[in-house]
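Field log, afternoon session.

UNIT: design team B
ACTIVITY: writing a sequence onto a fixed backbone
BACKBONE:
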């Protein structure tokens, strides 16, 4: 009666869901008994309650609103489309909530996988190092998030850190006893400097060239020992089939063969690469390594070699490792040992 008696400008602009449902139920009961001006008034008021009174309809209200639509249609109302629009909006809203709920559960699922990842080879091989599963089950956004967040990329390689560095035998190195005063000359500029000043860290692409016994491998192992980054230490002969294949053989085994993902991690600078003894392998293997270096110009890569006839990667800086001077040898070994 309030709705019927009040003029439109005096009607409430917003009502609760319970009030709206109660009013609709009563009006729907009156509908079969209404005619003339009374029926038209009910038509307008029902439409206003559904469409313009800012009611927060729920999914459970859909059957009630659908019943209203049927009755409006049967009565030849011109307001049917407005009510159908409200129902469609409610259905879309309900669908959006479902999608958000599914995405939320999916996100929690992958967050749990990441949490248990370091301790579970099964999770490592099935979910993260399997491109098909990661792309499809991850709904596309998992790959994107991993590539955007550096700490996630590092986390994927952390379980393999010891295997990656195994050939460096860093446990046998005492950084305090390493002789850091060796000198190098930059081939491009001709500038001479201490090796630890010229190469304080492995950043970009570097070639360290020197005669046998000058300490190239020791420098590589020393840098691997003190580095806080994730790196792989490879002897050049492990790269006979390619650098990527050499890394896979060290950490991934037969169950995990996702070379494209590994390449992405290298391209983003997540994995530093140390390759020792380039002069000790066949020219074909050197060519494979050079092509790899030239393909990953954003990666952090260092190569060591004795002097040889070859064409080094154009993107790499070359340093020539110089022999120790007499005073330096005395400082390392002592005067008595040098005299003997």
């Amino acid at each position: 009666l309030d709705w019927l008696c009040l003029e439109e400008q005096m009607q409430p602009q917003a009502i609760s869901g319970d009030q709206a449902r109660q009013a609709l139920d009563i009006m729907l009961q009156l509908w079969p008994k209404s005619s003339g001006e009374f029926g038209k008034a009910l038509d307008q008021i029902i439409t206003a309650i559904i469409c313009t009174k800012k009611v927060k309809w729920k999914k459970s209200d859909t059957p009630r609103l659908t019943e209203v639509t049927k009755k409006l249609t049967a009565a030849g109302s011109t307001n049917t489309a407005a009510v159908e629009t409200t129902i469609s909006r409610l259905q879309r809203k309900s669908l959006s909530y479902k999608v958000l709920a599914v995405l939320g559960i999916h996100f929690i699922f992958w967050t749990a996988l990441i949490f248990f990842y370091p301790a579970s080879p099964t999770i490592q091989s099935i979910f993260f190092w399997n491109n098909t599963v990661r792309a499809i089950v991850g709904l596309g956004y998992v790959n994107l998030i991993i590539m955007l967040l550096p700490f996630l990329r590092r986390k994927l390689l952390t379980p393999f850190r010891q295997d990656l560095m195994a050939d460096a035998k860093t446990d046998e190195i005492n950084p305090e006893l390493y002789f850091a005063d060796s000198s190098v000359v930059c081939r491009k500029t001709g500038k001479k400097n201490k090796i630890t000043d010229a190469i304080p860290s492995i950043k970009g692409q570097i070639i360290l060239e020197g005669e046998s016994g000058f300490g190239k491998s020791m420098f590589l192992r020393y840098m691997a020992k003190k580095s806080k980054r994730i790196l792989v230490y490879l002897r050049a002969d492990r790269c006979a089939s390619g650098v990527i294949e050499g890394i896979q053989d060290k950490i991934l085994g037969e169950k995990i063969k996702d070379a494209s993902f590994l390449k992405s991690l290298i391209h983003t600078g997540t994995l530093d690469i140390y390759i020792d003894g380039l002069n000790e392998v066949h020219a074909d293997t050197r060519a494979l390594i050079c092509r790899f270096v030239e393909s990953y110009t954003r990666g952090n890569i260092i190569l060591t070699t004795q002097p040889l006839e070859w064409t080094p990667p154009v993107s790499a800086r070359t340093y020539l490792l110089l022999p120790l001077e007499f005073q330096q040898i005395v400082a390392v070994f002592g005067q008595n040992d040098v005299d003997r």
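LOG NOTE: The chain has a mean pLDDT of 83.
NEXT ACTIVITY: expression trials, pending approval
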